[in-house]
Write a structure and sequence with these properties.
Length: about 80
């Protein structure tokens, strides 16, 4: 079973490039099947990692960036892959 972990943060105004660099270079303890980093207007950064594991497995996630970099706490979601086309 594949599990996708989504990590989304919003940088302080004007600090989006720094948050993006932080997310891109932050190592994980373990190697996911895939890791994708995305950005969006509003200084938002999204990181999705895919793991071959049960839905409720204890998987490594990116930590919270420092409060000097983000506007709010990180949002996190976990999804189970059901179909690939």
């Amino acid at each position: 079973m594949a599990v996708a972990l989504m990590w989304e943060a919003r940088a302080l105004e004007g600090r989006g490039p720094e948050l993006l660099d932080w997310a891109r270079t932050r190592p994980l303890p373990g190697t996911p099947l895939r890791r994708e980093t995305l950005s969006a207007p509003g200084d938002r950064v999204l990181v999705i990692t895919w793991w071959e594991a049960p839905y409720d497995a204890d998987l490594p996630e990116l930590p919270e960036p420092g409060p000097d970099l983000v506007r709010r706490a990180v949002h996190r979601w976990r999804f189970e892959s059901l179909d690939v086309s």
